[in-house]
C-alpha cells in the first residue's frame, strides 16, 4: 500500500488510514484519549487551549498572495523561513509515530469542492474531522488527490525564542503550498476554521461567496441563511424541526444556489437543554465528540450547565445525526437572510428589517459581542466588530466579500433582517438574555414573510425598521427602550454603541456612501 504521508516528507509513519468512527473511538479509548458519556459520545478535555488562539494564527506572506490578503491584527503575516522551520520541526516530531489520516472534502457542490487530507496525532481529533468534513465515497477515495493538507501535532510545544512564534502554539496557513500546520493545541476548532479560511481565500476567484453562516430550507423550498459569530445562535436557530437543515456554520453561494462546506456540525454545548435544542441534544451520541463538557464520573451523564473548564464547551457530530438534514448539502438561492448579533449593551432591537444598503452596512460592520470562552482570554462578553460576521476566517479584504453579497441579494431579491439574540432591559450583568422561544418566533415570522405585512417604526438611533408587532412575541420585547427601567440610561447606552458603529465604519475604504444608512447620533432620542 502506498504511503499517504510520504509526499509531505514524513518517514516511518504507522498510518491508520480512513478509519471508521467506531474504530477511532475504540482507539481513542485504548490510548486514554477520552471517555464515553452515558449516550456514547466520546468526551475529551483539550487542556490549556479550550478555544481558538487568534494571537497564534498566521498566514505565510508570499509574493503570490501578498496583495490579496487583508493583513492586520486578524491576518498576521509570518515569513516563509519561519514556516519552513516549524514545518521541519513538526515533521521531525511526527516521524515514526502512529498517525491517523482522513481524506475528505470541503464543499458539497462537486464543482467547487476541495479535497482535504488531515493527518492527526490523536484519534479523537481524527474522529472530529471525519465527522466535520464531507465524507468521500469508496469510488472517490480511489482517485483522491489532496489539495489541502492539514498537519496536527498537539503534543509538540514550540519555543517562541527559537521558533519565531508568539507562544508554544501556532496555526500556520501556507496558501501557496496549501499546507496548514497546527501545533500545541488540541482544540478541534482550529482544524475546522483553518479549512474554512482556505476555502474563503480561493472561492471568490470562482465567483462563489464564502459565508460564515448556517442555512436551512422550508418545505416550500425557500432557503434561508443565518450569519453570526460563535455563540449568537447560528447552530441553534438553523436546527429547526420544521425546516430542513443544510448546514450550521460554513457555506458557499454560487450562481446556482447555496452549498454546505461541511459534512457535520460543531455546536456550543453550554446551557444545552433538550427543551430548547432537541435536535442538538439527541445528536450527542456514539460517533459524536464532546470537548470540555463536564460529566459525572460514575453515571457519565453530562452537565451542560457546568462551564468550569470553559464556557466554550463543544460537540461535533455528522450532519446525518440531525433527523431533518438534507445530506446533499445543497439548496436554492435564499429568500431570507438573517444577521444574528448578541448585543452585550442590550440596546439593539430584538428584530429589525434592513434595506439592501443597510444589509451591506451591517455585513461589513459585523457587530456582535465576543462571548465567554470562544477565544482564549475572553471571560465576559465584549462588544466587537467582525467584518462579514467572520473576520477571523476571511483572508481577503472585506470589499471582496461585500460586493459578492450585494450582487446576490439584489439579483435574487432577498429580504434581510437583523436579530439580536443578546440582552434586553440593561447591559450584560443587568439585563436578561432574550429567550430562545421568542427568538424562534421572530425567525419564523421573518422566514414565513409574516413581517412583510406589519407596520414598522424607524429606530431613532440605529436607523433600522422595527416591526410594531410580531406573532408570538410581546410588544415590549420588540421595543428595546421599553424593556429598560431607566429610559435615560438606555438613550446613553444606545448613543455609545452608535458611536462605536460609526468609528468602526470609518476604518473601511470606498464605502462612504453607506454611512448615511447606518446608526446616527445627531438625532433626538
Describe this structure in words.
With 525 residues, the protein is an alpha/beta fold. The chain contains 13 helices and 30 strands. The strands form 7 sheets. Strands 11, 12, 13, 14, 15, 21, 22, 23 and 26 form a 9-stranded mixed β-sheet that branches. An 8-stranded mixed β-sheet has the order 1-6-7-8-10-9-4-5, with helices on both faces. Helix 9 packs antiparallel against helix 10. The longest helix is centred in the C-terminal third of the chain and has 19 residues. It is globular. The mean pLDDT is 94.
**What overall form do the CA principal axes indicate?**
globular
Largest sheet: 9 strands, mixed
Structural class: alpha/beta
Strand content: 15-25%
Instruction: Quickly count the helices.
Output: 13
Distance between the termini: 72 Å
Helix content: 10-25%
Low-confidence stretches: none
CA radius of gyration is 23 Å
Overall pLDDT level = 94
Number of strands: 30
Quick summary:
This protein has 525 residues and is of the alpha/beta class. 25% of the residues lie in helices and 25% in strands. Helix 1 (21-30) runs antiparallel to helix 3 (123-132) and helix 9 runs antiparallel to helix 10.
